[in-house]
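lol forgot to send this yesterday, sorry. struct tokens for the thing we talked abt
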């Protein structure tokens, strides 16, 4: 499987920072599900849910290679429980706050009231690149590659 330079760089950082320190003294055949699960639980105390998920993905891919090469019979990281994303409760303005905001918005006041009371999202344009080229950190230097959603199109 080939990855972009930025993905390889990110994966290498995860291996160096999180995986090597914990697993370098354990032979690949001695890695067990309970150990992986305990490690992930420990990581969840100091890392975000997204970070734990990325770290698990990299560890699982390493173990998938070990399965492919017949070094272990199965991947002990499969079926590991990952932390769930905690959904943040939305913050809403009171009716008095909406009225105050509409008053301070001058000519935009009607729009503020309309959006606040209908629940429609703000009509700001989404900021997307043209997709022609993207500069990404790829280790010690930036890498320019074609944009994802336009790859192969002219």
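and heres what i got for the seq, position by position
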């Amino acid at each position: 499987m080939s990855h972009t330079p930025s993905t390889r760089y990110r994966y290498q950082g995860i291996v160096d920072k999180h995986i090597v320190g914990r697993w370098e003294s354990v032979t690949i055949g001695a890695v067990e599900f309970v150990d992986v699960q305990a490690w992930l639980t420990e990581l969840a105390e100091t890392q975000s849910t997204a970070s734990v998920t990325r770290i698990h993905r990299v560890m699982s891919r390493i173990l998938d290679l070990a399965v492919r090469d017949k070094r272990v019979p199965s991947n002990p990281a499969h079926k590991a429980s990952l932390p769930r994303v905690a959904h943040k409760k939305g913050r809403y303005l009171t009716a008095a706050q909406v009225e105050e905001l509409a008053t301070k918005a001058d000519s935009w006041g009607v729009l503020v009231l309309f959006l606040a009371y209908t629940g429609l999202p703000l009509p700001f344009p989404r900021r997307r690149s043209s997709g022609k080229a993207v500069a990404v950190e790829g280790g010690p230097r930036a890498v320019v590659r074609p944009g994802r959603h336009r790859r192969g199109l002219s």
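Strands lie at 134-137, 142-145. anyway ping me if u want another try
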